[in-house]
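Allow me, if you will, to draw on your knowledge of protein folds for a short while. A protein sequence and the structure tokens that stand for its backbone fold form the material at issue. I would ask you to consider whether the tokens describe a fold that such a sequence might reasonably adopt. Thank you for your consideration; the sequence and its tokens are set out here:
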Amino acid sequence: MAALVYVAARAPDAGEDHGALASRFPTPPASAGLLKSPDGFTQLSEQALLHDFAGDLPLERAEALYAVQQRVALTLFSGRTIDAAWHSKPSWYAVSSQDRTMSPELLRFMAQRMGATTIELHASHVSLISHPDEIAALILEAAGQQGLDQTVQPG
């Protein structure tokens, strides 16, 4: 069985303007730290990445993420999905309740709209890093396995 797992992620519907959808929810603080370049790319300021994007990581780990941050195309924010796979595949969603990069209210809305099996973590946007056991368990559940201790050993 194919399944989808979203982790504090965008999940627009087909043809949906994600920016318009996001504007219905509180503006996340990290938005103020987007540094746009004339060549059509953007990245987070150091303060926005350390405090808003990776706020629940140890400072040293967050600084390492800042050091390797890649720019993203501004078209990421305006592009539209052609087909929303969550309409035809079972979905799981991890909401980061302390996310300052995407509004937690928006994350909850998208998870509920898709009918996803949902967990909520007291985490920043990078819950994949700050809560690896919980995310691994969610992925294993989506894959049809019974629990984390079957295949993943804490590291």
User: Anything to note?
Assistant: Confidence is low (pLDDT under 50) at residues 146-155. The two ends are 28 Å apart (CA to CA). The first strand starts at residue 4 and ends at 7. The CA atoms of residues 16 and 34 lie 23 Å apart.
